[in-house]
Specification:
21 strands; binds cytidine-5'-monophosphate; Rossmann fold; 2 domains; five-stranded parallel β-sheet; 412 residues; alpha/beta
Length: 412
């Protein structure tokens, strides 16, 4: 069964000669089981008729600024949609989208939908590489919209090169992959540790670190979006999370995080340990605020915290998978690989503080993945949300049954 079955798709068609391909795209989506509602700009109706799209989609086409349903039907339609695909999206449409302008109908819908947005540009040769074009594309991608890249070939202008709207079959495949990914962790139980820990010194002071919890929260949200039920054990973080499939447990210390993770681990399919856990805690917590004295500087005796990853690694059963992080400043790859083995993990994401844009308190990250089969995947600098999806895709790949029919082995 296609992952498009039962999905609600708005297909936005703007004025471009490539609009003729949208008829075939509508047909392909409907044949895959999707419900398609077509939205046309007035310019699009000069290239292809609403009647054609009405017939192929089996639903009335939204081609009028107002309809019997009233002026705000775009809001209702926005709530109905599981995906909004603009194909073709000529440059003026997505320039307006990039700037949040709603005076083009295709762009207006972009402001109303809550679902993922993808856009398939259709352009002439020299427009593709214009700095303004590239900047607008980058801006839309930074909002989370998906670019469906242009193809090469003969263009309506008679020139040959880049700029053709992607073929309908490719757009269908991309949407299918998108919805397929939503089912990637269907029915899986995922445990995630995230954020820093605070190790109290006295009632007002603690030992902490600069982790914001952003990477772990992105992982929790991405896992939930892929269909998993998520237990998120979050250290002290200013951030929160709201998703019906994420159960949040807030903790403060490494010991509390350890207790929560060990309690939750049995029965989970995948544990992603993204927390920056303090390695040590003060051996004693003063009951009262420690006073400043003129005497010699006070020393704080430390004791080791339990290692959550290593403990879960020892408890791991066949079919369970553990993903960890390594933040290294020297001998990065060798340290990450040995951590993977030592803690009996299946996949480790190496962060390097040397990379510009990566690390604590950032919205972006750059990681290299190493798996238990010695596979190395270096990812580009991307948003933490995109990194989260890549990590979970790699984990899902390792969770697939092997050819012999058995799942992952517990030892390396
Ligand atoms: O040994 P190191 O702290 O570099 O290992 C990092 C990995 O181990 C991360 O995945 C981190 O969440 C996990 N870890 C843990 N418990 C600790 C220390 C680290 O789960 N006490």
């Amino acid at each position: 069964m296609s992952s498009l079955t039962g999905k609600h798709i708005i297909l936005g068609i703007s004025g471009s000669i490539a609009a003729y391909k949208s008829a075939l795209l509508t047909r392909l989506l409907v044949r895959s089981g999707a419900e398609v509602q077509v939205l046309m700009t007035p310019a699009a109706t000069t290239f292809i008729t609403p009647l054609t799209l009405h017939t192929l989609s089996g639903k009335p086409v939204h081609a009028q600024v107002s309809s019997e349903a009233g002026w705000n039907n775009h809001v209702e339609l926005g709530l109905w949609a599981d995906a909004y695909c603009l194909a073709p999206a000529p440059a003026n449409t997505w320039c307006q989208m990039a700037r949040g302008l709603g005076d083009n109908r295709g762009a207006a819908w972009d402001l109303c939908v809550r679902c993922p947005v993808s856009f398939a540009p259709a352009m002439d040769l020299d427009m593709v590489n214009q700095p303004a074009t590239q900047a607008n594309v980058a801006r839309l991608q930074s909002y989370g919209d998906t670019l469906i890249p242009v193809g090469r070939g003969e263009l309506a202008s008679g020139l040959v090169g880049e700029g053709r709207m992607a073929e309908p079959e490719d757009i269908q495949a991309m949407l299918e992959a998108h919805f397929g990914e939503q089912q990637l962790l269907d029915g899986k139980r995922v445990l995630i540790t995230a954020g820093p820990t605070h190790e109290p010194i006295d009632p007002v002071r603690f030992i902490g670190n600069r982790s914001s919890g952003r990477m772990g929260i992105a992982l929790a949200e991405a896992a939930a979006a892929m269909g998993a039920s998520v237990k998120l054990v979050l250290g002290p973080s200013a951030l929160g999370v709201h998703h019906p499939r994420i159960e949040l447990e807030r903790v403060e210390t490494a010991q509390e995080m350890f207790d929560a993770a060990v309690r939750q681990f049995p029965g989970t399919d995948l544990a992603v340990l993204a927390a920056a856990v303090a390695d040590y805690r003060p051996a004693e917590v003063a009951e009262q605020k420690i006073k400043k004295t003129e005497a010699a500087s006070p020393a704080i005796a430390l004791v080791k915290n339990p290692d959550i990853a290593a403990t879960l690694g020892r408890q791991k059963q066949p079919g369970q998978l553990i993903v960890g992080f390594a933040l290294e400043t020297e001998n990065e790859e060798a340290n990450a690989r040995s951590k993977l083995e030592r803690k009996n993990m299946d996949l480790i994401a190496l962060n390097s503080l040397r990379d510009e844009g990566a690390g604590f308190e950032r919205t972006t990250n750059k990681v290299t993945l190493f798996d238990r089969n010695n596979k190395r995947t270096a990812l580009e600098l991307k948003t933490k949300e995109a990194v989260a999806r890549d990590i979970l895709r790699a984990a899902a790949e390792l969770m697939k049954p092997t050819r012999a029919g058995s799942q992952n082995k517990t030892s390396l």
